[in-house]
TrEMBL record:
This is Unannotated protein.
Length: 103
């Protein structure tokens, strides 16, 4: 499974998502994570980048909400604990279709 982490340097939240994805990839050899730094507004528009961090699974933004804007901004995720800068480990596992027992 191809997982892409899209981010921009000025957003600190991508590092949390990166650590969580790395933990899943370490448990699941089928999960391959690549990182892509988005550098310009034009690139953000071309990629339909909904903010940092964005997680794409096989090219699809699995957390995209209808009507979400694109651009170089930090993204907010709805988690069980409230709004956060990154999905929880469990939300990422669910999005990737990986259970803790499989990992």
């Amino acid at each position: 499974m191809d997982v892409s982490l899209l981010y921009f340097d000025d957003c600190p939240n991508w590092k949390v998502a990166d650590q969580r994805l790395a933990a899943i990839a370490a448990e699941c050899p089928d999960v391959v994570v690549t990182r892509h730094r988005v550098e310009t507004v034009e690139e953000a528009e071309r990629l339909e980048f909904h903010g940092s961090p964005s997680i794409l699974v096989d090219g699809v933004d699995v957390f995209a909400e209808p009507g979400a804007g694109v651009g170089l901004s930090c993204r907010v995720y709805r988690t069980p604990e409230g709004l956060a800068g990154s999905p929880t480990l469990e939300q990422l596992r669910d999005a990737l279709g990986v259970t803790k027992e499989e990992a």
